[in-house]
Amino acid sequence: MPRLTWKSTFLLALLICSLGFTSLATAADFEQFVKPILTKNCVKCHGGKKVKGKVNFKLITSAKQFLAKPKLIKEMFEAIDANEMPPEDEPQLDPKTREKLLAVLKQSLRLGVKGQGPQKLHIRRLNRFQYNNTIKDIFQLKTDIFPLPEKLMTRYDAYLNNKSKRMPETVNVASNALSPTPGLKGVKAFPKDLRASHGYDNQANQLTLSPLLLDSFLRLSVSILDSPDFNPSTVGVWNKLFKQPKPGTDLPTEIRNRLAWFLKRTFRRPVPNDILNRYTAYALAKIKTGLPFTAAIKKVASAALSSPLFLFRSGYDNKTESQYQLASKLSYFLWASCPDDQLLLLAERGQLAKPDTLKKTIARMIADPKIERFLDTFPAQWMQLENALAATPDPKIYKLFSLDKSHPASLQMILEPLLLFDTVFVENRNIIELISPKFTYQSEFLKTWYTSDLKVPKLDTSKLIARNKLNDQRRQNLTVQIKSLESKRAALTAPIKAKIVAARKKQSPGRKVVDLKPYAAWEFNGNLQESIRSLDLTAHGNIKFENGMVILNRAYLLSKKLPINLKAKTLEVWFKIPNLDQRGGGLMGIQGPGDFFDTIVIGERKPRHWISGSNRFARTDDFPGSKPETKANQMLHLTMVYADDGTTTLYRNGQPYARPFRKGRDTFPKNRSSVIFGLRHLPAGGNRYLNVTIDKARLYDRALTPEEVSSSSGGINLYITDKQLATAMSPAQLSQKQSITKAIEQAKRDLKQVPPPVDIRKRQQAQTKLYENEIRAKMRSRTFKRVPTSDPRFGGIITNAAMLSMTSGPKRTHPIARGAWIIEVIFNDPPPPPP
Questions:
Q1: Are 786 and 446 in contact (CB under 8 A)?
Q2: Cβ atoms of residues 20 and 113 within 8 Å
Q3: Maximum pairwise Cα distance, the chain
Q4: Predicted confidence (pLDDT) per residue in 98-120, tens digit
Q5: How far apart are CA 262 and CA 243, in angstroms?
């Protein structure tokens, strides 16, 4: 016996429903075969003293009485076919007798219902999915007209119509049910349709039409045609339906011809002349009022899309029109859309119901790309997969399920059974493989979900503790080494520094002693790069070096950007101006954000302190209380102290120069502040001839006190620069000091290279975050790979994660819900409602 495939089963079912049967039961079948079996196996419980299930076979004595009860025959057939009868504790029918009895019952049922006529047909309203596809196909639109959350799987590979009839090993799919693709601009869909108890959305008794919904349909049809996205570039039939005819065209005939085609596709049947005339007259009336041709046809199209002939699918009264009914049934079942021109043509010719034609038509429709819509609706609704989207496990127990709110685990889960259904369809596989396949399609997320305990990998704390201990020991050893070397260097330089200090005190007896270590210091002896911490200076302009000083002739020195954020700061400069008879000039200090800088201007026989800035100040202000006390070639010690409260204090030769000036709380951010010496951005005519000679300069990262400024200017600073120290040392001492300094610097570099202690708690948190980010990335993946399965717990539609999730509660599984799902979905035998 050939294997039962999905497509052969499907085609057989359709042909049986369409063609009916020809062999009939006879009275002899009942008298000679059925009646003896009923007497021997059934009357004991269904007749005489016992009448179970309200079925009494003793009352049925003839074939006529038997055939008059088709409902009873159907129930008998189903019970025997499902092995529910005879009961387990009663003698069973042998296989040959059972097979023959089923055949006779089937024939009796056909004879019993013969002549009763067709059942009453319900009119069916288009649901959302059908409405969207019908509009899309009629106008040949390139996009959906509104979002479709009903579409649970979006395919990014065109594998359904693969000529090899084999699914790719890797496919790219996603579920956009929570964030569906937008439709035409300005179009709002009507609400989602109610689902029947078994999950389908095409049931006539559920597709009602309330006054509110009817109003939605009226507004929807207008919004579709008026959407800015409904234009010649998106509408495939624009020229055929909406384009302005050429001048001289017979307008009534042209409109009638266009509407004849459009209304036949829209109403899915031939359009009577009175209806066609009515729509044609409506279009002509709109044009006569001055409405453009395209707008008038859009009005007609909107009216047609609001008609019951479009919104509803109903039965037909005569045999000819039943051909169109069959065309609609086929197209809406397989394509979820209206019949195409070929289906309508076959219906018009009366050929669609012919067995050979019907078989070829069904094969053509299954091979058409629009069959994707059947796969978008039937399997998801059959398996009730929308319920998986409503699964909400307790986040305290199952945190990873909804780790990504936009892409919960359920979106990946529902793709697995849908891909299995696609594979059975594309490869024409045995339908039993829906239950027990030897393969499945899984993403990296599902693989992780199925094969791991979904716990963050634990850290190997023993290795981290050992590493921390080793690094702590290295850090401690280097710190001790640095302290030892610094002590050794201090012991070497201390006597030499003492001699230098003694010599300074001897040369300047009675002066104050101060120990000020600058943040950066410059001694201008021809080398512009001598500074503590290597704060380089770049020369700009005409610069000379004489007698250990730098001479700036209409020039300046500019430092690199300061590497720290100085909030409180002091700048002191020793300089002299050879000639005060010239026009004047100046010396700048710190330049801050927005080109803000402080400028000391000396010249024009009136020394002044200017606060300048191209952005902050609109004009330049004199420093309060300025006095002309500068003489030619006089060495000046000028100090600017920038306090935390925003006050700038100027000192000249160690003494306050006029009153403090409040310039506001300005900071000088890291990498945005500079130190400038020389002439730059002075008032008009200020830097034409003035020469400034700078001896040295110092920058402090704190505000000096008045006592410290005074001592620094006229006192003895115990701080000794490296150059001063090197000059006083012997070659052997200098070599030893350099060797020690080099060792200290290397040890400090090694100390910086030692990794800091690892915080085990933070490392675990980081590992947790990394693991969760990996899960989030997997949740968004579109790649599914075909993998073999050997474990029956995996792969089939009964054991996939989607079914297991949607039949569970927030905290635990629900076996009863799973059992109800299986007997309803798999066995099509739903349990009765609870009492």
A1: no
A2: no
A3: 147
A4: 888 888 888 888 887 776 665 66
A5: 14
